[in-house]
Model the fold of this input.
Amino acid sequence: MVIIGAGPAGISMAAEARGVGIPAEKIVVLEKGDAHSWAIRKFYPASKPVLANYKGIKAVCTGVMCLTDMSKEETLTYIDRVIEECQLQVHYKESVTGIRPLQDGGGFTVETSGGAYRTVRCVIAIGILDKPNKPEYKIPPALAKRVHYDITSEVINDQAVLVVGGGDTASEYCQFLVQQGNRVTLSYRRREFARLNPVNLESLMALETRAQVRILRESNISALEDDGGRPRAVFQETGHPAETFDRVVYALGGTTPLNFLKAVGIKFEGEVPVLTQGYETSLPGLYLIGDLSAGKKGGSINLAFNMAAEAMRAISTCPLPSR
Done:
Protein backbone atom coordinates (compact mmCIF):
# COMPACT_ATOMS: atom_id res chain seq x y z
CA MET A 1 0.00 0.00 0.00
CA VAL A 2 1.30 3.44 -0.97
CA ILE A 3 -0.08 6.38 1.00
CA ILE A 4 0.50 9.90 -0.29
CA GLY A 5 0.66 12.48 2.48
CA ALA A 6 1.88 12.22 6.07
CA GLY A 7 -0.80 14.32 7.71
CA PRO A 8 -3.34 12.94 10.20
CA ALA A 9 -5.28 11.16 7.42
CA GLY A 10 -2.22 9.53 5.89
CA ILE A 11 -0.66 8.43 9.18
CA SER A 12 -3.96 7.04 10.46
CA MET A 13 -4.42 5.16 7.16
CA ALA A 14 -1.05 3.50 7.68
CA ALA A 15 -1.94 2.74 11.31
CA GLU A 16 -5.23 1.18 10.21
CA ALA A 17 -3.37 -0.98 7.70
CA ARG A 18 -1.05 -2.17 10.46
CA GLY A 19 -4.08 -2.83 12.65
CA VAL A 20 -5.52 -5.35 10.19
CA GLY A 21 -2.21 -7.16 9.94
CA ILE A 22 -0.50 -5.65 6.91
CA PRO A 23 3.27 -5.86 7.57
CA ALA A 24 5.12 -2.58 8.03
CA GLU A 25 7.41 -3.34 5.08
CA LYS A 26 4.34 -3.53 2.79
CA ILE A 27 3.29 0.05 3.60
CA VAL A 28 5.02 3.25 2.57
CA VAL A 29 3.95 6.81 3.34
CA LEU A 30 5.26 9.49 0.96
CA GLU A 31 5.58 13.07 2.22
CA LYS A 32 6.95 15.98 0.19
CA GLY A 33 7.80 17.96 3.34
CA ASP A 34 10.52 17.28 5.88
CA ALA A 35 8.10 16.32 8.68
CA HIS A 36 4.63 14.87 9.16
CA SER A 37 1.53 17.01 9.77
CA TRP A 38 2.69 19.98 7.69
CA ALA A 39 -0.56 21.96 8.02
CA ILE A 40 -0.56 21.67 11.83
CA ARG A 41 3.08 22.77 12.01
CA LYS A 42 2.61 25.57 9.47
CA PHE A 43 -0.72 27.11 10.43
CA TYR A 44 -1.18 26.33 14.13
CA PRO A 45 0.51 28.77 16.55
CA ALA A 46 2.31 27.16 19.47
CA SER A 47 -0.47 27.99 21.90
CA LYS A 48 -3.34 26.97 19.61
CA PRO A 49 -5.50 24.18 21.02
CA VAL A 50 -6.28 21.31 18.66
CA LEU A 51 -9.95 20.71 19.35
CA ALA A 52 -11.51 17.25 19.16
CA ASN A 53 -14.97 18.78 18.62
CA TYR A 54 -14.12 20.94 15.60
CA LYS A 55 -16.72 23.13 13.84
CA GLY A 56 -19.50 21.36 15.69
CA ILE A 57 -18.44 17.91 14.48
CA LYS A 58 -18.98 15.54 17.39
CA ALA A 59 -15.78 13.87 18.54
CA VAL A 60 -16.69 10.22 17.93
CA CYS A 61 -13.81 7.91 17.03
CA THR A 62 -14.33 4.74 15.00
CA GLY A 63 -10.75 3.70 14.26
CA VAL A 64 -7.44 3.00 15.95
CA MET A 65 -6.53 6.68 16.34
CA CYS A 66 -8.47 9.26 18.34
CA LEU A 67 -7.84 12.86 19.35
CA THR A 68 -8.88 14.56 22.56
CA ASP A 69 -8.45 18.30 23.12
CA MET A 70 -4.68 18.74 22.96
CA SER A 71 -2.10 21.41 22.40
CA LYS A 72 -0.26 21.59 19.08
CA GLU A 73 2.79 19.96 20.65
CA GLU A 74 0.75 17.16 22.25
CA THR A 75 -0.93 16.40 18.93
CA LEU A 76 2.39 16.17 17.09
CA THR A 77 3.84 14.00 19.86
CA TYR A 78 0.81 11.68 19.65
CA ILE A 79 1.36 11.21 15.91
CA ASP A 80 5.10 10.72 16.52
CA ARG A 81 4.25 7.91 18.92
CA VAL A 82 1.91 6.21 16.42
CA ILE A 83 4.61 6.31 13.74
CA GLU A 84 7.12 4.73 16.16
CA GLU A 85 4.82 2.11 17.66
CA CYS A 86 3.44 1.01 14.27
CA GLN A 87 6.96 1.04 12.77
CA LEU A 88 5.71 3.09 9.84
CA GLN A 89 7.94 3.80 6.86
CA VAL A 90 7.56 7.51 6.17
CA HIS A 91 9.68 8.81 3.29
CA TYR A 92 10.13 12.55 3.80
CA LYS A 93 11.17 15.00 1.07
CA GLU A 94 9.80 12.66 -1.58
CA SER A 95 7.27 14.36 -3.84
CA VAL A 96 4.79 12.39 -5.95
CA THR A 97 4.96 13.44 -9.60
CA GLY A 98 2.41 11.06 -11.07
CA ILE A 99 0.11 8.08 -10.54
CA ARG A 100 -0.37 5.75 -13.52
CA PRO A 101 -2.86 2.86 -13.57
CA LEU A 102 -1.18 -0.31 -14.79
CA GLN A 103 -2.47 -1.60 -18.11
CA ASP A 104 -3.16 -5.07 -16.72
CA GLY A 105 -5.57 -3.63 -14.16
CA GLY A 106 -3.39 -4.78 -11.28
CA GLY A 107 -2.82 -1.49 -9.50
CA PHE A 108 -0.70 1.58 -10.03
CA THR A 109 2.77 2.91 -10.55
CA VAL A 110 3.41 5.85 -8.24
CA GLU A 111 6.19 8.02 -9.62
CA THR A 112 8.12 10.21 -7.22
CA SER A 113 11.16 12.44 -7.01
CA GLY A 114 12.99 9.45 -5.55
CA GLY A 115 11.92 6.70 -7.94
CA ALA A 116 8.75 4.67 -8.48
CA TYR A 117 6.55 2.22 -6.56
CA ARG A 118 4.17 -0.44 -7.82
CA THR A 119 1.15 -0.99 -5.63
CA VAL A 120 -2.30 -2.56 -5.80
CA ARG A 121 -3.68 -0.01 -3.32
CA CYS A 122 -2.95 3.70 -3.35
CA VAL A 123 -4.39 6.19 -0.88
CA ILE A 124 -4.22 9.93 -1.55
CA ALA A 125 -4.32 11.77 1.78
CA ILE A 126 -3.01 15.21 0.87
CA GLY A 127 -4.47 18.24 2.59
CA ILE A 128 -6.86 20.81 1.21
CA LEU A 129 -4.40 23.68 1.77
CA ASP A 130 -2.00 22.89 -1.03
CA LYS A 131 -1.44 26.61 -1.65
CA PRO A 132 -2.80 29.51 0.41
CA ASN A 133 -5.43 31.66 -1.27
CA LYS A 134 -4.14 35.11 -2.13
CA PRO A 135 -6.06 38.34 -2.70
CA GLU A 136 -7.08 39.39 -6.20
CA TYR A 137 -5.19 42.68 -6.00
CA LYS A 138 -1.43 42.76 -6.46
CA ILE A 139 1.00 42.89 -3.55
CA PRO A 140 3.80 45.43 -4.19
CA PRO A 141 7.13 43.54 -4.31
CA ALA A 142 8.62 45.94 -1.73
CA LEU A 143 6.09 44.65 0.82
CA ALA A 144 6.89 40.95 0.38
CA LYS A 145 8.57 40.68 3.79
CA ARG A 146 5.67 42.42 5.55
CA VAL A 147 2.86 40.34 4.04
CA HIS A 148 2.26 36.84 5.42
CA TYR A 149 0.01 33.82 4.84
CA ASP A 150 0.81 32.17 8.17
CA ILE A 151 2.25 33.36 11.49
CA THR A 152 4.74 30.62 12.24
CA SER A 153 7.47 31.48 9.74
CA GLU A 154 8.54 34.67 11.49
CA VAL A 155 8.21 36.08 15.00
CA ILE A 156 5.85 39.06 15.06
CA ASN A 157 5.59 41.11 18.24
CA ASP A 158 4.90 44.69 19.33
CA GLN A 159 3.61 45.66 15.88
CA ALA A 160 0.43 46.93 14.25
CA VAL A 161 -0.95 43.89 12.41
CA LEU A 162 -3.92 43.63 10.06
CA VAL A 163 -5.43 40.14 9.81
CA VAL A 164 -7.67 39.56 6.79
CA GLY A 165 -10.30 36.82 6.95
CA GLY A 166 -13.30 35.61 8.89
CA GLY A 167 -12.80 31.92 9.60
CA ASP A 168 -11.32 29.98 12.49
CA THR A 169 -7.77 30.49 11.28
CA ALA A 170 -8.23 34.27 11.22
CA SER A 171 -9.64 34.22 14.76
CA GLU A 172 -6.81 32.02 16.00
CA TYR A 173 -4.23 34.28 14.38
CA CYS A 174 -5.76 37.26 16.19
CA GLN A 175 -5.64 35.45 19.53
CA PHE A 176 -2.00 34.45 19.06
CA LEU A 177 -0.89 37.87 17.82
CA VAL A 178 -2.48 39.54 20.85
CA GLN A 179 -0.59 37.15 23.14
CA GLN A 180 2.61 38.22 21.36
CA GLY A 181 1.96 41.84 22.31
CA ASN A 182 0.76 43.09 18.93
CA ARG A 183 -1.89 45.70 18.15
CA VAL A 184 -4.32 43.68 16.09
CA THR A 185 -7.00 44.72 13.60
CA LEU A 186 -9.24 42.19 11.84
CA SER A 187 -10.79 42.96 8.46
CA TYR A 188 -13.87 40.86 7.68
CA ARG A 189 -16.12 41.33 4.68
CA ARG A 190 -19.36 40.42 6.46
CA ARG A 191 -21.19 41.88 9.46
CA GLU A 192 -21.69 38.63 11.38
CA PHE A 193 -19.26 35.73 11.85
CA ALA A 194 -20.98 32.62 10.50
CA ARG A 195 -18.05 30.19 10.12
CA LEU A 196 -16.39 30.32 13.55
CA ASN A 197 -16.61 27.45 16.01
CA PRO A 198 -18.07 28.51 19.37
CA VAL A 199 -14.71 28.56 21.18
CA ASN A 200 -13.07 30.86 18.64
CA LEU A 201 -16.13 33.10 18.39
CA GLU A 202 -16.26 33.55 22.16
CA SER A 203 -12.53 34.26 22.33
CA LEU A 204 -12.64 36.78 19.50
CA MET A 205 -15.62 38.63 20.96
CA ALA A 206 -13.87 38.79 24.34
CA LEU A 207 -10.78 40.30 22.71
CA GLU A 208 -12.94 42.90 21.01
CA THR A 209 -14.71 43.73 24.27
CA ARG A 210 -11.35 44.25 25.98
CA ALA A 211 -10.20 46.43 23.03
CA GLN A 212 -7.36 44.00 22.27
CA VAL A 213 -8.66 43.38 18.75
CA ARG A 214 -10.32 46.00 16.58
CA ILE A 215 -12.76 44.43 14.11
CA LEU A 216 -13.53 46.18 10.84
CA ARG A 217 -16.82 44.55 9.87
CA GLU A 218 -18.10 44.81 6.31
CA SER A 219 -14.67 45.83 5.08
CA ASN A 220 -13.15 44.85 1.76
CA ILE A 221 -9.60 45.74 0.79
CA SER A 222 -9.35 47.02 -2.77
CA ALA A 223 -5.59 47.60 -2.83
CA LEU A 224 -2.44 47.29 -0.78
CA GLU A 225 -0.02 50.17 -1.26
CA ASP A 226 3.60 50.74 -0.30
CA ASP A 227 3.71 53.47 2.34
CA GLY A 228 7.43 53.95 2.93
CA GLY A 229 8.02 50.22 3.16
CA ARG A 230 4.89 49.52 5.22
CA PRO A 231 1.60 48.13 3.83
CA ARG A 232 -1.24 50.62 3.50
CA ALA A 233 -4.67 48.99 3.16
CA VAL A 234 -7.16 50.82 0.95
CA PHE A 235 -10.78 49.79 1.53
CA GLN A 236 -13.71 49.81 -0.91
CA GLU A 237 -16.07 51.22 1.72
CA THR A 238 -16.01 54.95 2.47
CA GLY A 239 -16.63 54.16 6.14
CA HIS A 240 -13.20 52.55 6.39
CA PRO A 241 -10.42 55.06 5.60
CA ALA A 242 -7.10 53.79 4.28
CA GLU A 243 -4.73 52.75 7.04
CA THR A 244 -1.07 51.79 7.32
CA PHE A 245 0.12 48.76 9.31
CA ASP A 246 3.44 47.12 10.09
CA ARG A 247 2.26 43.73 8.86
CA VAL A 248 -0.66 42.19 6.97
CA VAL A 249 -1.57 38.54 7.56
CA TYR A 250 -3.98 36.83 5.15
CA ALA A 251 -6.10 33.95 6.43
CA LEU A 252 -8.14 33.23 3.30
CA GLY A 253 -7.98 29.45 3.21
CA GLY A 254 -6.28 27.43 0.54
CA THR A 255 -6.74 25.92 -2.89
CA THR A 256 -7.09 22.19 -3.43
CA PRO A 257 -4.68 20.37 -5.76
CA LEU A 258 -7.48 19.54 -8.23
CA ASN A 259 -5.27 19.57 -11.30
CA PHE A 260 -3.13 16.78 -9.87
CA LEU A 261 -6.17 14.65 -9.05
CA LYS A 262 -7.75 15.21 -12.45
CA ALA A 263 -4.48 14.36 -14.19
CA VAL A 264 -4.49 11.01 -12.40
CA GLY A 265 -7.84 10.26 -14.07
CA ILE A 266 -10.19 10.57 -11.12
CA LYS A 267 -13.72 11.49 -12.23
CA PHE A 268 -15.30 14.67 -10.89
CA GLU A 269 -18.78 16.11 -10.72
CA GLY A 270 -17.97 19.79 -11.04
CA GLU A 271 -15.24 20.36 -8.47
CA VAL A 272 -16.19 17.35 -6.33
CA PRO A 273 -14.46 13.99 -6.81
CA VAL A 274 -16.75 11.00 -7.40
CA LEU A 275 -16.30 8.58 -4.49
CA THR A 276 -17.88 5.24 -3.70
CA GLN A 277 -17.80 3.01 -0.63
CA GLY A 278 -14.79 3.57 1.61
CA TYR A 279 -13.77 6.72 -0.29
CA GLU A 280 -12.71 4.75 -3.35
CA THR A 281 -12.41 6.91 -6.46
CA SER A 282 -13.54 6.04 -9.98
CA LEU A 283 -10.24 4.18 -10.35
CA PRO A 284 -10.52 0.83 -8.49
CA GLY A 285 -7.89 0.57 -5.79
CA LEU A 286 -7.31 4.33 -5.56
CA TYR A 287 -8.73 6.05 -2.46
CA LEU A 288 -9.08 9.67 -1.45
CA ILE A 289 -9.38 10.56 2.24
CA GLY A 290 -8.96 13.59 4.49
CA ASP A 291 -9.91 17.17 3.77
CA LEU A 292 -10.23 16.56 0.03
CA SER A 293 -13.11 14.19 0.75
CA ALA A 294 -14.64 16.31 3.50
CA GLY A 295 -15.67 19.19 1.24
CA LYS A 296 -14.57 22.79 0.93
CA LYS A 297 -14.97 23.52 4.64
CA GLY A 298 -12.70 20.68 5.59
CA GLY A 299 -13.16 18.57 8.66
CA SER A 300 -11.74 17.65 12.03
CA ILE A 301 -8.65 15.57 12.62
CA ASN A 302 -10.86 12.89 14.13
CA LEU A 303 -12.92 12.90 10.93
CA ALA A 304 -9.71 12.20 9.01
CA PHE A 305 -8.96 9.34 11.41
CA ASN A 306 -12.47 7.95 10.90
CA MET A 307 -12.18 8.21 7.11
CA ALA A 308 -9.04 6.07 7.27
CA ALA A 309 -10.89 3.49 9.36
CA GLU A 310 -13.81 3.42 6.92
CA ALA A 311 -11.47 3.08 3.94
CA MET A 312 -9.64 0.21 5.57
CA ARG A 313 -12.90 -1.60 6.37
CA ALA A 314 -13.84 -1.33 2.69
CA ILE A 315 -10.41 -2.53 1.59
CA SER A 316 -10.50 -5.47 4.01
CA THR A 317 -13.78 -6.73 2.54
CA CYS A 318 -12.86 -6.16 -1.10
CA PRO A 319 -10.71 -8.60 -3.09
CA LEU A 320 -7.47 -7.38 -4.64
CA PRO A 321 -7.65 -6.25 -8.26
CA SER A 322 -6.97 -9.02 -10.75
CA ARG A 323 -3.51 -9.07 -12.29
About this structure: The mean pLDDT is 89. The helical segments are 8-19, 38-43, 72-85, 168-179, 198-209, 258-264, 291-294, 301-316. The CA atoms of residues 113 and 138 lie 33 Å apart. The longest strand covers residues 221-227.
